[in-house]
Every structure is written in structure tokens, then in C-alpha cells.
Amino acid sequence: MQALYDGPNGKAFYDSRIQLYGWWTVSGNISSSHDYSRGPTPNYPEVYDERPDRVELDQFVTYFERMADENQTDHIDWGFRLAFLFGLDYRFMASRGYLNDINLLENNHFNGFDTPMMYFNLYIPQVAQGMNIILGRIISLPDIEQQLAPNNLMASHSLVYSFDNYTMWGLWTSTKLSANWLLQVGLADGVDIAPWEKQDPGDQPTGSIMVQYIAPNAKDSFYVGDNSFNNGTFGFNNLQECIESYSHKFSEKVWTTFEAQYMWMDHCTTAPTSHVPYQDGFFPVHSGTIAEGGVVNYTMYRFAPNAFLTFRNEWWDDGGGARSGYASAYDENSIGVTYWPNRLVVIRPEIRFEHAFTHGGLETGENNPNGSDLPFHVNGPYDNLTKQSQITFMMDITYHF
């Protein structure tokens, strides 16, 4: 950007407020799960780093954007954002019917391209204390985490986040009602579904309403609501999601945040149908209404101006197996460090332990990871259905440009 500003017509480019920037993130992990003979993702259901003992290009991201000016009250302003992503992490933002049906949903390729954000926004300062309107494709509004590396507190993702709503297409308004209250109302075309994918039952008007309260001392914040609601019919990812978060600042060095979620779909089937040939997750272990949910906590301690320590603890229940593919409750605990050696580079090492409480049993031959028609014994979800627990050492490096 500085090169553009210093070049021909640099002042005009600067005054336009259009920016071009991004980052790349590379990660590596060493895991107690390492049996590739049974399949390519022994770490699963830990995501995004599903493949153990590897170095991956997680994401190469470029933003092209103009931010609406919200620091004024005398005129309507506009903006836009286009986000282009290449790498492993494209796997966790697919909309059925858009770009990756063949590359991901049919062929399960581990690297690809997506555009998780494509929207136009309008800021109207005369409505209440300011209203921001967004039209297009966005990353789902709530959640402590996001798919994009700079928006995460750790290198890895919690289980609570890994299997909920990702991207949505539609119209959203964020209205500042007062100094302490914010109201968000949206109308989307389903969850993780392109607006033109009409055969999927999840392609339907989907509401969203979220409310945020920030205390006058700015030490407490509540963010609660229903991120997606419609008739709940089983689709590619037609999740009905209630979500709540609370944050508290103890001091300039210590901060904590909680998130709880509950999700469900109705009329679920245990096998593909003509309208739902794919799942953004798995077909559940039984039909009917399938629900899942959990709670996650992040607690941070800043021990240097350019570094902080993070503790993450969570409990998550996938009782129908529709999200992780294994019907169980899970516990996950991680410790990590975020370190900025300079203004462009971020390094995040961590250690993670997770456990599934349900011991497997006997699976039918058609699910045998060895390719055999014979029934096989399942011990747990990790290391391709052979372990109940997993330890992962991981680190990622992000370079901003």
C-alpha cells in the first residue's frame, strides 16, 4: 500500500480509501494420531489441521476493500470487501452450489480456492446512533473464532467452533441503539448454501437476530441471540443455531470470554438422498431431530507488550454424530502463546489434548476404514476410529503484507 501511495496518482489512491492487503499462514503439527494407512485425516475430528506430522499452507488471503467511514455523523458512506483465499482452510467455508462442489464435496481435495467474504455495505449515521447495512456473502456474525487466521486467539480451533455455521448469503443490519446496546437483524438464504442451489431443503429464507450489550466501564460484554432460524428441515448445513457469549476484562493483562451454542436440524436421514447428497459434516447415526452443542472458554494473560498466553477449555456434545461423524461428548483443553516479533509476523505455538467420552463398539463393514466388507471394532474418533484421546503439538506462522 505504501508503494501505491508513493507512486503515480498516490494521493488520489489514498483519498479513495481503497486498500489491498492480506497475509499467508503456514502451520505444522506433531500428533499422537499418525496411522495414515486407514485414511488421510488421522487427527480428525480436530480441524483444521486434520493431517498429522505435516506442514501445511493453511491460507493465503488477499483483501480488496473500502471501509465505510463510521467516525462521522453528517453523511451516508459506503464500502465493500472482497476476500480471496487459497490453501487448506478452504475446506471449512464451502457453500454448496458455489465453487467447490466437485473439488471438495465430490473429490475431497485438500487445497483449493474460495471467497468467504463478498459484500457491499452502507453506513447511515442518521438511524439511531448509526446503522451499518451489509449485502452479500459474509462469515457468520457470532463466534469468538473465525476461519481467518488473524481473527483467532490460537493456532487451532475449538470443537465448538469447528462444526457450526460458516458463511451465509443475505442482508444484515447492525444498529447502534445507544452507547451500550447494538442490535443486529438479518435475512439470509440458508446456511452455507448458494442462493441458486434450489434443490437443497436448506435453501430458504433464514432469519438472524443478535443483541450486544457493553457495560459503561467496558469490562463486561454480552452478545446473545439466534444466528439462523427457519423451518429446520435437514439440508447440507441447515443448522438452527442459538449462540451466546460473555466477555470480562479483569485488568490490562487478564481477559476471559465464554461462548455457548446449541444447534439442531429436523427430519434428518442416516444416508444421502436426492436432495441432500452431501453433508457439511456427516449423516447422523439415527434419523429425526439431531442436536448438538457445547461451551468454550478462552482466558488470556498478557505477559509482554507483544505476547500473551491463552488457555482454552471446552465441552462439546455431538450425540447424534452429525457434525464429527462420531456420536459422543468431547472435552478439549489447550495452552498456547501468541508472539509478535515485529508488526508483520505472528508466531503461535500450542499444545492440545482432547478426549471423546464414548467408547466405540462394532461398526458395519461399509464404514470400515480398511476397505473391508467385514465389521470392525471402533475405539474412538481419533486416529481413524482407533483412539478415544489425542495430543497435538502445533505451531503456525502468519506473515502480513
Outline the structure in words.
The chain has a 16-stranded antiparallel barrel. Strands 16-17 form a two-stranded antiparallel ribbon. The chain has a single domain (2-400), classed as Porin. Helices cover 6% and strands 49% of the residues. It has helices spanning 2-6, 10-16, 101-106, 159-162, 382-385, and strands at residues 18-31, 54-66, 77-87, 112-124, 131-139, 167-176, 181-189, 205-214, 220-229, 240-249, 254-268, 288-304, 307-318, 328-339, 345-356, 361-363, 376-378, 389-400. Strand 10 (240-249) and strand 11 form a beta hairpin. It is mainly beta and 401 residues long. The model has no long low-confidence stretch (mean pLDDT 94).
Number of strands: 18
Structurally, the number of domains stands at 1
The span between the termini is 9 Å
- Strands side by side in the biggest sheet: 1-2-3-4-5-6-7-8-9-10-11-12-13-14-15-18
Question: Overall pLDDT, averaged?
Answer: 94
β-strand amount: over 45%
Within CATH, the superfamily carries the name Porin
Helix content: under 10%
**Order of SSEs:** HHEEEHEEHEEEEEEEEEEEEHE
Q: Treating each run of at least 4 consecutive H or I residues as one helix, how many helices?
A: 5
- At the first level of CATH, the class is Mainly Beta
Tell me which CATH architecture applies here. Answer: Beta Barrel
Q: What's the Cα radius of gyration?
A: 22 Å
Shape assignment: globular
Note the main sheet.
Answer: 16 strands, antiparallel, barrel
**Which blocks of ≥5 consecutive residues have pLDDT under 50?**
none
CATH topology category name: Porin
- Helix/strand-derived category reads mainly beta
